[in-house]
Amino acid sequence: MNVPTIKDVAKAANVSVATVSRVLHNLSGYSNKTKLKVL
Question: Fewest CB within 10 A of the end CB: N or C in the chain?
C-alpha cells in the first residue's frame, strides 16, 4: 500500500503543497475549513 505524499494530499484537497505543509506543522495562514479539507 502506498502512503499518500504531500502532493497527493494537496491535489485531493485542492490546495497548495505549502498549505498542506502549514497545516501539518500547525502554522498559521489558513482557514479552519482548509484545515479540515487537508486533514
Answer: N
